[in-house]
Amino acid sequence: MMAVVKAGAYGHGLEEVARVFADAGVAFLGVANVGEARRIAQAGIECRIYLLGASWSEERREIVERGWTPCISSLAEAQDFDARARAQGKILAVHLAVDTGMGRGGFVAENVPTVLAELQQLRGLYIEGIGSHLPSADEDEEFTRGQFAQFARIIEELGGEATFAWRHLANSAGLLGYAPQHCNLARPGLMLYGISPLAAQQGMLRPAMTLKSRVTLIRTLPAGHGVSYGRSFITTRPTRVATIGMGYGDGYPRHVSGHAPRVFVRGLYFPIIGRVTMDQMMIDVTEAPDIIEGDEVELFGPHIPVQEVAQKADTIAWHVLTGITARVVRRYV
Question: CATH fold of 2-204, please?
Answer without folding.
Answer: TIM Barrel (3.20.20)
